[in-house]
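Table S2 (text version). Query chain:
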Amino acid sequence: MMVDDMVVQAARAWIGTPYRHQAACRGGGTDCLGLLRGIWREIYGGEPETPPPYSADWSQASGEERLWQAALRHLVPVTAEAPLCAGQVLLFRMRPNAVAKHLGLSSGLQPARFIHAYSGHGVVENALSEPWRRRIVARFQFPASIQQTISRGAT
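Corresponding structure-token output:
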């Protein structure tokens, strides 16, 4: 099974998990970052790094793109010209000029869908509607192997 298929299958197993800020426990609670951390653990074993405590505003006051920087350390960037594919990690900017602070996973293409942990809803699979598409600022893929992240210099 290809990594992208494994990512979607793992993400769907998290559907119904309640939203819990900073958590990453399938069935117990998770936020959007915790969902990705949990999927990473299921595919590769341990996590590539332990995130520091973070507030719900995700460094909004400082303007630092911490979530984007972490994605660059561990995931493989997808060019804007590349087609949307199932298994891609989607990074969202929820408001213009704000930091990117929400993540989801593309789960289907006909019609486009994504899985994410959303405050007040838990882990859900939604249509990747035009309002959501407009908020995407970057896309990534899980590496084909853990060795790929090591060779890129991730710690």
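Notes on Table S2: The beta strands are 24-25, 29-30, 76-78, 89-93, 100-109, 112-118, 122-127, 136-141. Confidence is low (pLDDT under 50) at residues 148-155.
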